[in-house]
Amino acid sequence: MKPLFLLCGFISLALGIIGIPTPGLPTTPFLLLALYCFGKGSLRIQGWFMGTKIYQKYLKEYDQNRAMTLKQKITILAISAPFCLFAFWALPNIWGKIALALVILAQYYYFFFKIKTLENGASKVE
To answer: What is the distance between the alpha carbons of residues 17 and 6, in angstroms, rounded to a whole number?
Structure first.
């Protein structure tokens, strides 16, 4: 299983890196998946990843504090909203639309009620 986690981790890392300059391709979820997979596959590779500038810039604050600034939350949701709306419009099945609507509601609930909100510039949650 460890090689499978490592493969998934490196694929997720590649997609996360591609997502940095690419509008519409999310960065943070792929990097979080990479962090998880590296943790399951190899602590040495996880340690390497946590020392990279990519981790420091995009994940460190969330990984350590389980919190984001309001700006980060709104940015992530604003990027995902058009894709969710397009998928909702494109789905021909009412049950698919209901399922997607429930996923979107769960996403917004999680972002605003489960992830702590940091003050702008703050680095620790009390």
So the answer is: 16
What is the predicted pLDDT for the residue at 120?
65
Distance CA 79, CA 83 (A): 8
3-state secondary structure of 74: helix
Query: What are the b/e assignments for 34-63, b being 16+ CB within 10 Å?
Result: bbebbbbbbeebbeebeeeebbeebbebbe
Residue 55 has pLDDT above 70, yes or no: yes
CB-CB contact of 12 with 30 (8 Å)? yes
| 10 CB-contact burial (10 Å; exposed 0-12 / middle 13-18 / buried 19+) | middle
Tens digits of per-residue pLDDT, 62-112?
Answer: 888 888 888 878 877 887 788 888 888 988 999 989 998 998 898 888 888
Beta-ladder partners of 67? 116
